[in-house]
Design brief:
The mean pLDDT is 83. This protein has helices spanning 2-19, 25-36, 49-61, 96-109, 113-141, 146-153, 157-164, 170-185, 189-200, 208-217, 224-249, 254-257, 271-285, 292-321, 323-336, 343-353, 359-373, 385-418. The radius of gyration is 22 Å and the shape is globular. By secondary structure, the protein is mainly alpha-helical. The protein starts with a helix and ends with a helix. The longest helix has 34 residues, at 385-418. The chain is built from 18 helices and no strands. It has one domain (2-265, 340-378).
Length: 419
């Protein structure tokens, strides 16, 4: 049923993308409301991270610093039993702004699971609403149709299912980042920098917007010295804002040293990790076994260096390629060359990819969305060979049905438009 629903949603999204040009944005807002409404009342989808957020919120509200204590430190009624065992002993890698939101929410939610999930989902919804409000502004600034960008970025099934359905804090980080870029395109770079600083106070990738906005702030075709001056000024403004938030929260900067905690997950889905695992297996075949961890760490480090180089190149090319495209490529490089890849991480780059008009960008966005939507659906127990075969047949049939429906809808729309 879950796979079927995702395929239907992907088909509907594709159909909407083919007929949205020329439609008023208010029609798309209505679709957004209709698609989001059911997600506000379902249990967390495809992830248990929201329970970790709730546990960290309880921890903070009880006077313990989440950067030095893990959810396992909780005693009495708590959300600890719902937290994935992988994160029960992990310290928070999130910024003080998000921790303060959790601290404020904990007394309101109490020990109610439903109230806690609804609270964090509301935060995620606010983040996506920030994206929705900012997308038309950025689209117009780069000559992109606001309707097409809205469908690709805001009505994207990956955004809706994972950011809102999964109640991930990436929604608030991304919302503030996109709002910051929108403010910069309206010639308010300082406002944009401050919004990106707040995004980084949720999750550190938001800081990338500060550098790109500072680079663009120097002006088209500016000299390298002028570029460096404005980037430095932008970093100082963002740094001052982050210091103010950190001091106001009283939690300190321990979260920066915890950023490596998610990297404890070893998964073949992460390209850098997969290269490390494959290399260690090959070396094991020739007598050099037992070196998995250092090889994986080395490959991940190389991946991060390559991502940094790609980001630097896109920063230099941002005048020619445009700020959204430069951010899209940079964020996707950070995601896929980083130590771990989760589907909701892909939304960082996908939202900015929606502003790129090239056919390759549309195809890449569609592919990442379709694959990401089914990448982490949990399976309890083990599938038999027969169950796998039936699943493949059903998915294949549903995919063909969705494609056929999309093609039919597109033809009907063209016929209606021509008549």
């Amino acid at each position: 049923m879950v796979y079927s629903g995702i395929v239907v949603l992907l088909g509907a999204w594709y159909c909407l993308g083919t007929c949205c040009p020329g439609r008023p944005l208010r029609h798309l807002y209505a679709v957004f409301a209709a698609w989001v409404a059911p997600l506000l009342f379902v249990p967390p989808l495809f992830s248990r991270d929201v329970y970790a957020y709730a546990a960290l919120g309880q921890l903070t509200s009880r006077g313990l610093n989440p950067y030095g204590h893990s959810p396992a430190s909780l005693h009495g009624p708590s959300f600890l039993r719902l937290v994935d065992p992988l994160w029960q002993h992990a310290h928070a890698p999130y910024g003080p702004l998000f921790m303060d939101l959790g601290r404020a929410m904990a007394p309101v939610a109490g020990n109610s699971v439903v109230a806690a999930v609804d609270g964090y989902r509301l935060i995620a919804l606010i983040g996506v609403l920030l994206i929705a409000a900012s997308v038309p502004t950025i689209a117009r600034s780069v000559g992109r149709q606001p309707q097409s960008a809205f469908v690709l970025a805001v009505l994207n099934p990956l955004v809706l299912l994972y950011l809102i359905g999964g109640a991930h804090n990436d929604a608030l980080m991304l919302g503030l980042l996109v709002a910051g870029v929108a403010a910069a395109t309206l010639r308010h770079p300082v406002v944009g920098i401050l919004l990106c600083a707040l995004a980084a106070e949720v999750k550190i990738p938001g800081l990338i917007g500060v550098v790109f906005i500072g680079w663009a702030w120097a002006g088209q075709g500016a000299a390298p010295a002028r570029r460096l001056k404005f980037v430095t000024l932008s970093v100082l403004i963002a740094g001052a804002a982050m210091v103010a938030v950190s001091e106001a929260s009283g939690l300190g900067w321990g979260w920066l040293s915890n950023l490596s905690d998610p990297g404890t997950v070893i998964s073949w889905l992460d390209p850098a990790t997969a290269v490390g695992l494959a290399t260690s297996h090959v070396l094991g075949l020739v007598g050099f076994a037992g070196h998995v961890h250092p090889i994986v760490v080395a490959c991940r480090s190389i991946g991060l260096v390559v991502a940094g180089v790609i980001t630097a190149v896109m920063l230099v090319r941002s005048d020619r390629d445009g700020l959204p495209k430069a951010l899209a490529v940079s964020l996707l490089a950070v995601v896929f060359l980083g130590p771990i890849v989760w589907p909701w991480y892909e939304t960082w780059g996908i939202v900015f990819l929606a502003f790129v008009t090239s056919p390759w960008a549309r195809r890449l966005l569609t592919l990442l969305t379709a694959v990401g939507c089914v990448a982490t659906i949990p399976a309890h127990g083990h599938f038999t060979a027969g169950e796998v075969a039936v699943t493949i047949v059903v998915l294949g049939a549903l995919t063909l049905l969705a494609v056929a429906s999309a093609v039919g809808a597109r033809r009907q729309w063209r016929m209606a438009s021509s008549s």
